[in-house]
Amino acid sequence: MVGALFWAIKIVATTLGESASNFVSMTPLHLGYATTAAIFLVAFGLTLTMQLKIDRFQPVVFWSVILTTSIAGTAMSDLMNRTAGLGYAGGATVLTILLVAVLIGWRLTGQTMDVERIDTIQGEILYWTATLVSNTLGTSSGDFLSNGLGLGFRDSALLLSGAMLLILAAHYLTPISGTVLFWAAYVLTRPLGAVAENAVEKPVAQGGLGVGTTITSSALLAVLVTLVGYQLLSGNEQTRTADTALSTSSEYD
After folding, report:
1. pTM of the model
2. CA 3, 226, 228, 201 torsion: positive or negative?
């Protein structure tokens, strides 16, 4: 399940989450951060319920949960940092502490943190809790890098891309736990998506390309649908191949 396609879809889905949240909360819909967060927290609850009821990996359902956590997380982060006044540094600090607490709590339960081996409801709930918090943190940390530290969208994206490459190198060249590296990459994909989306969407005066939320969201949605469709079709083909091999084998038993 976790391979190059997984990471490609994860980055696209979380990047779309940033853009879609801006589309709903700011321009062009102007629903505000609180309303957007409430709407997509409900959507998260509905998609999560579907996810918990199925007994195997279903790409459409799985990535729907990821997307709703990304949209809700972006709105909640903006609500905390801008409306509630925590600021980018304050929001990133609070959410980092919360994520560490969730991960430590998960570890203490004895449930596996290897996402390919999670097979209990408790494990899934812990996974999705960590995902929601990390996707909320991603917006705050991305804003902190690009605005709080003044790196800008492009340099922040380059910094985060470099960090992802270091994690990839560590996977092949060091004995560091694959689970530790997975979660490091999993968390970093979110701020990477946030700053990359802002670099495209935001006006030129703010350091972006000025493409706007509507076009950015539409393009990302098209890419996400294509990638998830490919994953769905390739998964079905693998299942059919396995079933055919099993049927052929049984003929000779």
Report:
1. 0.91
2. positive
